[in-house]
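Entry for 1,3-dihydroxyacetonephosphate complex. Fields follow.
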Amino acid sequence: MRIKIAAGNWKMNLTYDEGKQLTEEIVNSEIPADVQVILGVPAIALARTACLAEDNSNVHIAAQNCHHIASGAYTGEISIPMLKSIGINHVIIGHSERRELFNESDEFLKLKVDALLEAGLTPIFCCGEPLNVREDGGQNEYVKAQFENSIFHLSGEQFSQLIIAYEPIWAIGTGVTASPQQAQDMHSYLRSLIEEKYNNDIANGISILYGGSVKPNNAEEIFGQTDVDGGLVGGASLKSETFVPIINSFS
Ligand code: 13P
């Protein structure tokens, strides 16, 4: 049985008080016992938000980025030992905004994935194609290359520690969601790649989330697809009125 995950990515949104209120509303909501909730909060709020969620074993707090080197002269960066020291166990890696706006390459992300696994943290590895690639029908090859360049060097044991998030860039923040069939097709393709590279157990055990304009009115159908194990949600994760229904969209 794969883990069902409703993950929120707050990106650069919410002041500390706004995030505190949202976290409290989520922590105090009825979360189904078999659903894991992960909140990707801004770095400045990680420590205090982790305290707010520490009594709810269904809720985990994730960083949105990290540096792969443990310490040193990297102004503005946050290291994995720092995250670990405040009880953070999940880190979003390779979000398309980090790739596009901050020039993070596949090779750089590979270093982060390695460092996280080495430290025993869970990378939430994001992948996904831009619109022009989708229009040309090249999405499978594009995402396959992201896997080959950043995560397919891992051992099977390491690979099974990952959470994958497929986020087609054209669906992020646009209100255009991939159709449930488009999500299913990509997730099933990724699972077949993982099976080919590793084995059936690893392919069937790994949670693959869909991200891109997930809303309360489409989550149930998307999460209902055979190979979709939940979502990585941006805009709709910023309010409990929209995120709590998404958490409850698993059948
Ligand atoms: P939206 O849900 O706002 O489209 O964002 C998706 C996303 O980028 C989550 O990481």
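NOTE: The chain has a mean pLDDT of 97.
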